[in-house]
Amino acid sequence: MLKVDLHLHTVASGHAHSTILEYINRAQELKMEIIGFTDHGPALKCSLADEVYFKCLPRIPSKIGNLLILKGVEANILNIDGEIDVSDRIIEKLDFVIAGFHSGVDYGCENNIGNNTKAIINTIKSSKINIISHPFLIKHYKIDIEAMSYAACEHNVLLEINTHYLAESELLKDTFSNLIKIIKIIKQHQQKVIVNSDAHNIWEMANDDSLKKIQNKIGLTEEMIINNYPEELLEKLKIKKA
Predict the structure, then answer these.
(1) What's the CATH number where 212 sits?
(2) Phi and psi, residue 140, nearest 5°
(3) Is 163 in contact with 211 (CB distance < 8 Å)?
(4) What is the pLDDT of residues 66-89, one digit of tens each?
């Protein structure tokens, strides 16, 4: 079970089923250390979260009991320039930003491996994001996995191991090979990955069972998982522990 989970969707994402309070209560029951809320940015058609929603997130306490509560967003990559659907004004108010490709977004360039790779690398280079969500998932947007991984290492951006897409019902044929490529490059650079649940309800939060089943096969050691080092993670996100 994860003690740190920074990819949680609430009802504000438009297709998730739990509230902020329900997540907080459940996280305390599980004795988690850090959680992060990351509702979808407004460019995703189903999202109910607009700029006002994200602007108001800092009004939620940063710590309740022993639980540290971070406020973020899962932003959408919009074009080849690496622009995302959250303004700089909002980014300044958030603790961290996850970004990735999502179907159902008006993507402003031709969807091919060259453009997609440029778009994700430009997003990484933008200095506006901290984490790339489910980078191994290339069902809708194919990318050069190695080029993206090298860019992430160079620009101090975490790549996410997303446990939702490792479940047997979601597992795609290229998932293993993509994960192996990512982990090999991360290991070469002596860096770490982040493991998140991408929970859409409180029962999915902190669940890493699907990763445990394949962890050895993809070459991922516990020492490479930044969730195991909360202080290092907070330092990487430039967050002072309350």
Answers:
(1) 3.20.20.140
(2) -100, -30
(3) yes
(4) 999 999 999 999 999 999 999 999
